[in-house]
Design goal:
Layout lengths: L6 E7 L5 H15 L7 H6 L1 E7 L2 E15 L2 E13 L8 H15 L4 E5 L3 H5 L4 E4 L2 E6 L12 E4 L3 H12 L2 E2 L2 E2 L4 H7 L6 E7 L2 E12 L5 E9 L3 H12 L7 E4 L10 H4 L6 E4 L3 E5 L2 H7 L8 E7 L4 H4 E7 L2 E6 L5 E3 L1 H8 L5 H6 L7 H11 L3 E2 L6
The structure holds coenzyme A.
């Protein structure tokens, strides 16, 4: 393997990458991730591709998928990085850092001030300004856990329309930080990746859909199956009770209900509703966030309307022009001015975790990610209060 620096190709819309380089990248993803249940052509068509080339060979790459996420109740144009990989023979040379940084810069220039990714290697991204924004966990509940739920006045609707489910999902998403607005091609992409054997049930009040669940059967050995809930938006106790009734009566062979990683928020509402807690969980890896355009990100997010604040930030590890910023928040809306006294030194990754609502300012200060006096910490804690992080979609 050459010791020369790799050439970075892109980022460019997928169609700009030659078929030969694309084929090499597709082969590399198979090597790095094993067989992937994913139609790669869909993200290629809709995403931004960046490749690292050494001696004409693709030795690394990533795809950025443009979408929108909610932060503080507002919709922020963002992107998710997918299939970041470096060829085994080229690892340890910070090639992935170059690829993701090139992508992040291009995304900021294209008006996407925030970038997310799921990763099992947070250290690699932390060096480039990303920080953990949330966790995901897969959980099994015994089917008995859902028995005896109080009856509700909701009507069960088999196969609700995609539009009605989308409306429910988007209403629910506004309550969370990071919840995605799926682009139009998302469902086709997921279905091409093997999620086409699902059935959906909606819950309606007076003809309006107020929640839904998408299910599939997962075979168990030696016999029987688990019910897997692949997508769930049940925003209140009534909908969760209706869901519980439906799950418990769904099939006599199902012994457990499986919620794969991300389907439930990190602290699911079931914790406060189910009479018996017999869940069994497994950890997935976290998702991380980077503010690629700090000013744009701080102004795009919603803030608690109950708190007016002025924060004079000194953001570490950024260009001098971006270092001193003053964030003024009034009526839930942020405005960033250049300069200020830099009273709150904050690391780029500390800013990302606080922005996501993953870390309170007080906790970030204990972790040495920022420094502020008690009044400023209380104010920062209140500014992001209200929404917790939840990213249900894997990419
Ligand atoms: C994660 C991955 C993208 C990192 O790529 P990379 O270009 O090698 O990144 P780096 O050069 O920053 O190295 C990352 C770490 O791997 C170590 N490493 C792994 N294999 C190595 C090798 N063969 N030689 C030297 N170092 C190696 C590095 O020392 C470094 O450790 P550190 O973080 O403690 O400093 C790459 O390992 C990979 O493709 N893994 C499989 C796919 C994957 O998991 N992708 C991430 C999904 S988000």
């Amino acid at each position: 393997m050459s010791s020369a620096e790799p050439r970075i190709a892109g980022p460019e819309p997928g169609s700009g990458v030659s078929d030969g380089h694309w084929a090499q990248y597709a082969e590399l993803t198979g090597r790095c991730f094993g067989p992937i249940d994913m139609d790669l052509e869909i993200p290629r068509r809709h995403g931004l591709v960046c490749l690292a080339l050494l001696d004409g060979q693709v030795v690394g790459g990533a795809i950025a998928l443009p979408f929108h996420q909610h932060f503080g109740g507002r919709v922020v144009p963002t992107a998710g990085l997918s299939l970041v990989c470096t060829a085994p023979q080229a690892r340890g040379r910070r090639i992935s850092a170059r690829v993701v940084t090139e992508l992040a810069t291009a995304l900021a220039a294209d008006g996407m001030p925030v970038v997310s990714l799921w990763t099992a290697t947070p250290g690699v991204y932390r060096r480039c300004g990303w920080e953990v924004a949330g966790n995901a966990r897969g959980t099994w509940y015994p089917i008995d856990a859902f028995r005896d739920a109080p009856a509700t006045d909701l009507t069960l609707v088999p196969d609700p329309s995609p539009e009605a489910m989308r409306a429910v999902r988007e209403r629910d998403a506004a309550r969370w930080n990071g919840a995605l607005l799926r682009p139009g091609w998302w469902t086709a992409w997921k279905q091409a990746g093997g999620e086409d054997d699902t059935v959906s049930y909606g819950f309606a009040a007076g003809g309006d859909l107020v929640g839904y669940a998408t299910l599939r059967c997962e075979t168990r050995r030696p016999w029987g199956y688990d019910l897997a809930v692949r997508d769930l938006h049940a925003p209140d106790a009534r909908t969760l009770q209706a869901l519980s009734g439906m799950l418990s009566e769904h099939g006599a062979q199902a012994e457990r209900v499986h919620f794969p990683p991300g389907v439930l928020p990190p602290d699911p509402d079931f914790t406060w509703l189910l009479p018996r807690h017999r869940a069994e969980s497994y950890d997935w890896y976290p998702w991380m966030l980077r503010l690629t355009d700090i000013r744009g990100a701080l102004e795009a997010r919603g803030w608690s309307p109950a708190v007016d604040a002025e924060l004079e930030l000194a953001v570490e590890s950024r260009s001098e022009a971006d270092r001193l910023l003053t964030l003024v928040v009034t009526g839930g809306q942020g405005k960033v001015h250049d300069g200020g006294r830099g009273l709150i030194p904050i690391t780029e990754r500390g800013l990302a975790a606080w922005y996501a609502g993953a870390l309170s300012a007080s906790r970030a200060s204990r972790l040495c990610l920022l420094r502020a006096d008690t009044t400023a910490l209380q104010s920062m804690d209140a500014m992001t209060g209200g929404q917790e992080p939840w990213l249900a979609d894997l990419f």
